[in-house]
């Protein structure tokens, strides 16, 4: 795990994970209302194998890295509305959103799933196999930039993907965007996770904020500004989960 200024990020993530266990991974600060949303609308429709991965992930010390169930439900519906057939996922973790994507795609759909840590993916793999979705998934154990560059080196891949989901190192989001925008088709969607970073993007300079959160809030703000300025996309900032930015390629 990376270290910055002598601080081990894994330790900070574990501390943040304890907060999320209590309050949930949502910008909605009414815990009872968020619980109501999950228990009324999300969990009753959750696929059995998705539930298995979610429950297994909740026991992991870095469980906060998983996408929120309500966010996953929304994006899964978007995939179906789009009639998406090809996708890329940058940052897989235990495979909760990956399985949701696979379930939304047709039987001949394909997902290139990229993560540098195979052991995380292996947590959810038995449930993905149980769901009968492994034939749709091309898992690549590597950091994302080399894989995206390799995809772009093959002309057939340019503009060939319907949907791309990015939930990886936040300080590389702009670098990822310069590659994903070339891989997604015109009319396709790129979704970037954690773009409001627990609401810290709106923190005042003198607000008490952990250094880690302040650092990633700055990354998120730079990224959000870059997306608004990018004329190749239409952009929408969603206040679901930890903030999701949807980019629809128009040029």
UniProtKB/TrEMBL annotation:
InterPro entries: Cation-dep_OMT, SAM-dependent_MTases_sf, SAM_O-MeTrfase. Gene3D superfamilies: Vaccinia Virus protein VP39 (3.40.50.150). One of its GO terms (molecular function) is O-methyltransferase activity. Keywords: Methyltransferase, S-adenosyl-L-methionine, Transferase. CDD domains: AdoMet_MTases. GO terms for biological process: methylation. Belongs to the class I-like SAM-binding methyltransferase superfamily. Cation-dependent O-methyltransferase family. This is Caffeoyl-CoA O-methyltransferase.
């Amino acid at each position: 795990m990376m270290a910055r200024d002598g601080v081990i990020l894994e330790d900070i993530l574990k501390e943040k994970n304890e907060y999320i266990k209590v309050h949930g991974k949502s910008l909605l600060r009414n815990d009872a209302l968020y619980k109501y949303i999950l228990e009324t609308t999300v969990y009753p429709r959750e696929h059995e194998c998705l539930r298995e991965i979610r429950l297994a992930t909740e026991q992991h010390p870095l469980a906060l890295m998983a996408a929120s169930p309500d966010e996953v439900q929304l994006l899964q519906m978007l995939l179906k509305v789009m009639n998406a057939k090809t996708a890329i996922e940058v940052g897989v973790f235990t495979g909760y959103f990956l399985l949701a994507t696979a379930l939304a795609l047709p039987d001949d759909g394909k997902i290139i799933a990229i993560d540098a840590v195979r052991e995380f993916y292996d947590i959810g793999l038995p449930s993905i196999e149980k769901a009968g979705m492994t034939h749709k998934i091309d898992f690549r154990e590597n950091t994302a930039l080399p894989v995206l560059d390799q995809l772009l080196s093959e002309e057939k891949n340019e503009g060939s993907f319907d949907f791309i989901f990015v939930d990886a190192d936040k300080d590389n989001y702009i670098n990822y965007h310069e590659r994903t925008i070339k891989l997604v088709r015109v009319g396709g969607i790129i979704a970037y996770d954690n773009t409001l970073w627990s609401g810290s993007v709106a923190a005042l300079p003198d607000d008490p904020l952990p250094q880690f959160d302040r650092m990633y809030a700055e990354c998120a703000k730079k990224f959000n500004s870059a997306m608004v300025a990018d004329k190749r996309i239409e952009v929408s900032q969603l206040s679901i989960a930890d903030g999701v930015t949807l980019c629809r390629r128009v040029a």
